[in-house]
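Q: Start with the shorter request: fold the first protein.
A: Done. Sequence, then structure:
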Amino acid sequence: MSNTLGFECTRCAQRHDGMPLAYTAAAPAYWRPEFAHDPGSVLGDEQCVINDEHFFVRGRIVLPVLDADEDFEWGVWVSLSEANYDRMGEIWHDEDRVNEPPYFGWLSTELLVYDLSTLNLKTNLHTQRVGIRPLIELEPTDHPLAVEQRTGITLDRVQAISERVLHGA
């Protein structure tokens, strides 16, 4: 089952081209369209503020794919304290930001392919080179997402995730 060949969907019996190795959330789970009219709220490509009191940064949860050459990535949002959010803003374009210690945060994206909620899982956000989204490390719990981050997944699991994303739970 190669990324270029696609897969036969067990949900709809159709052939889907390619094997998606990344999905992303456009906004934190807490964002609402009406916030766009609030001067204290902003949703950008990489950062989000709600009511001048909740601060979020976009990052990546990487899951190793054991039987492929590429990893699988969840594009997610993590909430940070105001101090850590401000610090990230200060060093946003600084090449030395890779030397920052990780920032504690709470996962703020609901990944509906998991039977347990992914909201508010404890995380550490690791800054990367300028232009690269931060890596999100989950607290090593028995939550299925945390287990998959530690132990990896297979292409069969990637297909199952794709089917749930395409067709719902």
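Q: Next, the second protein, separately.
A: Sequence, then structure:
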Amino acid sequence: MKAAMKMFRSLSVFLSTSADARREARQANYLSQATDLHDLEFRIRQLDRQQARPAASWMSLQG
């Protein structure tokens, strides 16, 4: 019963959160795992390159 409630709560949070907010949260988590300034700058450049790269139209559906 508790597992079902936890899953329902997780699903409701997922559905109420926008794709942009989920993407930003993933990026913030990724950046927070940097071990030093050099690693942080590398990760920032990597995210910038990913955003600059045009994606196929079907990929824009991913959150």
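Q: Describe the second briefly.
A: The chain has a mean pLDDT of 85. Residues 20 and 63 are 7 Å apart (CA to CA).
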